[in-house]
C-alpha cells in the first residue's frame, strides 16, 4: 500500500496463519485516508484484524499535534511561486529543501499550473529518467524560473554562493546573473514544530518564505490511523524528538481500544508470537543498557506449557532503534533540524 511518504514508499501488510503484521515504514496519511486503502479491508468492507502494528512515530509529539495537510501546503507554494514569477522572466524561485528527493508532487503541481518544469541537478535527473511521470516535469535547462538545484551553505568563502546564501550543486549560474531576482521558498517541518507555529507559511524577509511541508504524519493523524486500524498491539518505529521510549509506547497504547498491557492472552498464543517478542525483548534490553528510560514491551501472555518460574531472560545485543536510512535523504536528515539549522 502507498505510504504517502515519497514516490515508491510503501506500507507492508503481512498476513499468515499466525496473525497479521502491518509495518508502515515512514508514512504521511491524512485523517480518514486509512478507510480508502482496499488492502486493509475484507471483501465485505470491514477492517481486517491487525495483530501487530509497527508505526512511524517521527512526529508523535504534542508540538506536532496538527500539521497542515500537503494539499494546503502545495496551494500555498503555488501562490508564492505565482506572485514572484508573474512579475517577469528575470524573476526566479528556488525551492530550498533538506532532502535530495521526495518533493516530486510539488514539481508536478507547478508544472500543471504554470506549464513550467523544475530545474534539478544532473544526479537527480538521472534518477528521474527512469520514471516517465516525473521525468516529464523536471529539466536540466536552467532557463526555467523554478529551481531546486541549489542548496543552502554554512559560512562563506564559496565563489558561487549568492546573496540568498545558496550555492549551486548543479552547475547552474542563473541565480548569480545581474538583474535576476531570486525568491527562496524553504520547505520545512521542524522549524514550525520547534516554534509551534501553526501557519502554512511565514515570511522571513523580502525574498525568503518558509512553507510547512511534512513527509511524516502528525500526532493527530497517527492517532486517527491507529484508532481506525485498532490493532492488538502497536509499536514505535522511531523515537520522536524530546521523547523517551516509555512515553512513546504509552501514547501508542492510549490509542488502542484496550491497552496492550491488559490485552487478552488469547490474542496471541503462538510460538511465532513468542519468537517475535524475544527479538523485541532483545532490542528493549539493549536500549535499557544504554538508556534508563527504556519502555516495557506489552506483557507476554503465558503459554499453556510454561511454568510460573520459566520466564526466559532477555539477552542483550547490538540491535538499536535507529531511524530508517533511505536514499531519499541526504546527510542532513529531512526532519532532524535544530533551531540553529532550521533556517
TrEMBL record:
Q: Ranges of Polar residues compositional bias?
A: 310-319
Q: Where is the composition biased (Acidic residues)?
A: 332-343
Which Pfam family, any one of them, does this sequence belong to?
A: DRMBL
Chain ranges of the DNA repair metallo-beta-lactamase domain: 201-240
Ranges for the region named Disordered are 291-343
What keywords is this UniProt entry annotated with?
DNA damage, DNA recombination, DNA repair, Endonuclease, Exonuclease, Hydrolase, Nuclease, Nucleus
Gene Ontology MF annotations: 5'-3' DNA exonuclease activity; damaged DNA binding; endonuclease activity
Q: Does the keyword Cytoplasm apply?
A: no
Protein name, per record = Protein artemis
